[in-house]
Amino acid sequence: MFLPASFTPLWSAPAASPPSGLWFVFEGGRLLTSATACQANALTVPQGDGPPVTVDGARCIGLLGELPCWAARAGVEAAPPGFTLEPLRRLFDRLPDELVAVAGRAAQVLEFDRTHRHCGACATPTQESDEGRARRCPACGEVYYPRLAPAMMVLVTRQGPGGRELLLACGTRSRAPVYSALAGFVEPSESLEDCVRREVEEEVGLQVCSLRYFGSQCWPFPHSLMVAFMAEYASGEIHCQEGEIVDAQWFPAGRLPALPHRLSVARRLIDHAVAEAEQ
Questions:
Q1: Strands 67-74 and 21-27: what pairing?
Q2: pTM (2 d.p.)
């Protein structure tokens, strides 16, 4: 997701700020939301002087306009009357885009706090450090900052008999028959460009050339930094990697299958390639 321009990231609450504002409360991977009174099937996050449930570890994660945004873990497993707990992915198109994006930041901050309560070197409980940006071990001095897993994404294109064609694939982890660009995590000591070439060859058996950087996106499921490229087909025949890719095909730019959600960098990458083909 992409944070809105009106959002100012913070790691601690503004001076003299009361615990009022927008509350992004998670129970596991589920976000607490409530139905809005003005629009059917529309949801929002709680707003006010405090959350509607007991919470643990509340912290300010930024300002949306002038509203402080708070992230916290729910102290209950069931939502109170008038509220619901749902996975963040299921709230796309039901929750306003700007709230989905801020909720993604909240989820990542809470996950960092959860997984770094104790030092990974000596198991001592850690403490907040660097104004809340990090956690430090008081025993051995190790300092931990939130870490993102770098991953590349690449949309391979070629000139077909009827015009530009896009290579799109459906992965084994896809819950629906959605086709997207290829993607994979960067390995130690590997450059992004080398990762692109390796993943394309591993997943579909093709070679590519003419890499072009497109953009990036922080993806909070759970903590990836997606770096997107475009590439030109060089050689090879499609052979889907067993256990990873269900199907991969060349699609004409004007006749595409079901695509990723519009909030993803994958969809922006595909839309960009289609716009280029139509020029």
A1: parallel
A2: 0.87
**How confident is the model over 12-45, as pLDDT tens digits?**
887 666 678 999 999 988 999 987 644 555 689 9
Domains in the chain, start-ordered, CATH in brackets? 7-115 (3.90.79), 118-146 (no CATH), 149-278 (3.90.79.10)
